[in-house]
Amino acid sequence: MYKTLDELKEGLARVAQEEEGILKVTNRTQLNQEIDQFVQTAVFADHEGLKAAARWSIRALALALDIVPSSIHDLYMAMGREEIRGFTVPAINLRGMTYDVARQVFKLAIEKNIGAFIFEIAKSEIGYTNQRPSEYAACILAAAIKEGFKGPVFIQGDHFQFNRKKFSEDPETEFEVIKGLTQEAIEAGFYNIDIDPSTLVQYSRPTLIEQQRENYECTAKMTAFIRKLEPEGITISVGGEIGHIGGKNSTVEEFEAFMEGYLKTLKEFGDMPGISKISVQTGTAHGGIPLPDGTVAKVNLDFEVLRSISEVARKKYGMSGAVQHGASTLPDELFDKFPEVGTSEIHLATGFQNIIYDHLPEEIKNEIYNYLKQNLKSEWKEDWTEQQFIYKTRKKGFGPFKRLFWDLPQETKSKIMESLYQKFHLLFEKLKVFNTQKYVDKYIKPVKVLPKRPF
C-alpha cells in the first residue's frame, strides 16, 4: 500500500488527471493494477488522513468510470406500482474480506447482466468488524473498478437499530447516536438506509397502534432527518421494520397499524416520500439457531407473512413489499419461494461468513477461536456448548483479525472466493435477478456526488 500521501498522489497521477476538480481516468490498465494499493491504503494505512485520501480517490475514480453510489428508491416505487415484479433483490452483508468478496459479486453481475443487488452493513457489524461506512464504501467501489463494472451501485445501512434500554433511559441521546451514524453513512455514499426502531415495540400494550407507537414515531422522525441530508437529485431509499428479527411473527394488522401511525406522523414534518419497504419477522433469526453440535436448526418460515404483507404494501401504500432478514442459512431449495410470494428484498450475511470459516486452515481457525474464548467469555451463555458459543461469536473475529483475513494465502483465498461465487450464483439465480440490469437502466438515474477533496 502507499506509505505516504506523496506516494498516493503519485499513484493517482499515473492513472488519472484532474480537470476543474473532476478526475478523468487516463490509464485504465494501470488503474487496474494500482487499485489494490488504493484499497489497501484505504483500509490499513496508519494515518487517518492517508486513509481519507485513499477513500476519496477511490470514489472519485469510480465516478470517473460511471460507477455511481445510488438509491434504489425509484426501482422500488416501480415495484410498488407493479410495473415490474418477479424477482427479490439480494442485500449482502460483507463482514470480512470485503474487497475480494465484492469482486465476486460484481463478476457475477457482469456475466449475468444483474443490476438489482445491494451491498449493506448493519450498525452492529460496523462495530465488530471495524468497518466504518467510508471504508466499506471504498472497498465496494474499488471492487467495481477492479472488475470493470459500470452503473449504479446500491450501498445500504442495515439495521440502524435503536437500543431499547438506552432509549428508555435517555431517548434524545439514543436518537442522536442513530442520527450521527446515518449522516456518516450518507456522506460515505450510502443512499439506502434501513431504520430499525422495532426493538421499541411494546407488545404488552392493549392496541396494535399503541404497541407500534415508538417504532413509527422514530421511523418518521428519521425519515424526515434523512430527507434533509439528501444530495440534490437523490431520494434515499428508507426502510422500516415492524417485527424484531427473532421475535414473534408479523401480521398484516400490525403492518397497517404501523403505517397508519407512521404516515400521520410523517405529515407533521411536511410533504415528503416515505419508506419504500418494510422488514417483517417470519420465523427466522439472524445467523440461524445453532444446535449443541454446532449445526443450524431447521426453521419453520412462514411465507404467508411475506405474501400477505407484500400485497398490502403494494396495493395500499405503493411500497415495494416486505423484506426478509436472517435468510442466508436457510436451505437452498427455499430461495425460489421468495420471488413467488412477492418479497421485495432479502438480507444475506451469515451463510457467506460460514463459507469463509469453513475454508480456513485449522491453525488460523484455532487462533481466532482461542481469541474469542479468552475475550468474549461474558457472551457465553450457561446452556451453550463450545460449538454453539463459537458459532454465535465468530462473526466478531473479523474485526481483530481483519489483516489476517485480507492476507490469507492465495491458495486458501482462491478456494474461498470460488465457493462464494458459486453461492452467489445459486442464490441470485433462485431470486430471479439475472437480467435485471434493464430495470435499473430504466428507473435509476445515477447522480454523481463527490465529497470535498481531503488533501
Distance between the termini: 18 Å
Taking pLDDT < 50 over at least 5 consecutive residues as the criterion, the unreliable ranges are: none
Mean pLDDT: 95
Report strand order across the widest sheet.
4-5-6-7-8-9-10-11
Determine the CATH superfamily of the largest domain.
Answer: Aldolase class I
Total individual domains: 3
Shape: globular
Radius of gyration: 21 Å
CATH topology of the largest domain: TIM Barrel
Q: Describe the sheet with the most strands.
A: 8 strands, parallel, barrel
**Total strand count, please?**
11
Residue share in β-strands: 5-15%
The assigned structural class equals alpha/beta
CATH architecture designation of the largest domain: Alpha-Beta Barrel
So what's the CATH class of the largest domain?
Answer: Alpha Beta
- Helix segment count? 20
Helix content: 40-55%
Q: How would you characterize this protein structure?
A:
- The protein is α/β, with parallel strands linked by helices and 455 residues long.
- 51% of the residues lie in helices and 12% in strands.
- Strands 4-5-6-7-8-9-10-11 form an 8-stranded parallel beta barrel, surrounded by 6 helices. The protein has a two-stranded antiparallel ribbon with strand order 1-2.
- Helix 3 (48-64) crosses helix 7 (133-147), helix 11 crosses helix 12 (252-267) and helix 12 (252-267) runs parallel beside helix 13.
- It is globular and about 65 Å long.
- The relative contact order is 0.14.
